[in-house]
Amino acid sequence: xxxxxxxxxxxxxxxxxxxxxxxxxxxxxxxxxxxxxxxxxxxxxxxxxxxxxxxxxxxxxxxxxxxxxxxxxxxxxxxxxxxxxxxxxxxxxxxxxxxxxxxxxxxxxxxxxxxxxxxxxxxxxxxxxxxxxxxxxxxxxxxxxxxxxxxxxxxxxxxxxxxxxxxxxxxxxxxxxxxxxxxxxxxxxxxxxxxxxxxxxxxxxxxx
Length: 208
What we know:
Shape: elongated
Number of strands: 5
Number of helices: 6
Strand order of the largest sheet: 3-1-2-4-5
Largest sheet: 5 strands, mixed
């Protein structure tokens, strides 16, 4: 009887599949790289978001410029009149709140509420103040329209900037990095440092 031929054993390394895994060092290195990418990307994302809010704020101020211009065109050039019988006056107090008169110019109450808020202010309160020296002033009588501030980023829920350097200094709020957005009489908007805003105010502290 012929004995069956013995089959040669295969190489053990060839019999088992190659299943090399990650070493601990490689896993830790991958985690470190991911963490580094997160650290790098977060400030960039915040910067993009901040830039978007700054742009939205500028857009709000441009809308205010349109409303002020429309109101002045219909009221003998007066920017904001100090009269209790104006349709934009606060019904509760009779005070001439400039925030309310825009309702008649934009025709949208909800839009008005949104435009009073700076997108960069988390309080959701009105975030702009009006230069009180401009009440009852006619636009064409302003000598330096490109240098005369109408609205600026301010302490939340504050109506006016009074005509004093101390009031402007304490209530201008640089919400956009180290800058605040400012609307001028001629309708243009600038993003300025607080010191630059005060310099503009010092150039023209008393209006005609």
